[in-house]
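User: I'm preparing a small set of examples for a lab meeting where we compare how different chains pack in three dimensions. I only have the primary sequence for this one, and I'd like the structure in token form so I can line it up with the others. Please keep the answer compact; I'll paste it straight into my notes.
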Amino acid sequence: MIAIKQILLPVDFSEPALEATRYALELAERFSATLHLLHVIEDPAVYLPMFESYPLPSREEFNQYAQTRLENWIPESDAQKCAIERHWVHGTPFVEILKFARTQNVDLIVVGTHGAGMIRHLLLGSVAEKVVRKASCPVLTVRPDGHQFVHPVDADETDAAT
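Assistant: Understood. Below is the structure token output for the 162-residue chain.
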């Protein structure tokens, strides 16, 4: 039997991450696993274009933003379904995700994909793709516009309603 006790959910506060959160919560509940939310704060130089006419936030402000967003990422009603730990680090997203997974003995990484355009993908690559290629544990990728799993009971109710 597969034992999943530690699940890692990288969170960049995007819509795809929100979609992946649904899967990670369900899996954590079903396997009685701990769900680790991880936000990686990139080098502030990445944010310079956004703040060209404003002062760049301090490291402490980035930390406070991450902490606040992570504390509010999962609604309280869902947060009670499993053990949740919130983490944030500074660095390169895919590197920090892989490092966290390895040091915390993560059994599964659940990551949302953005479906980046071809040019962006060729120039920058995808964090999810790098994690899939280099992770030492299984990775579940969740596309926001992809196939959604439906519990058979829910599917029967939907079919009966039509």
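A couple of notes for your slides: The domain at 6-161 is CATH 3.40.50.620 (Rossmann fold). Confidence is low (pLDDT under 50) at residues 120-124.

User: Perfect, thanks.
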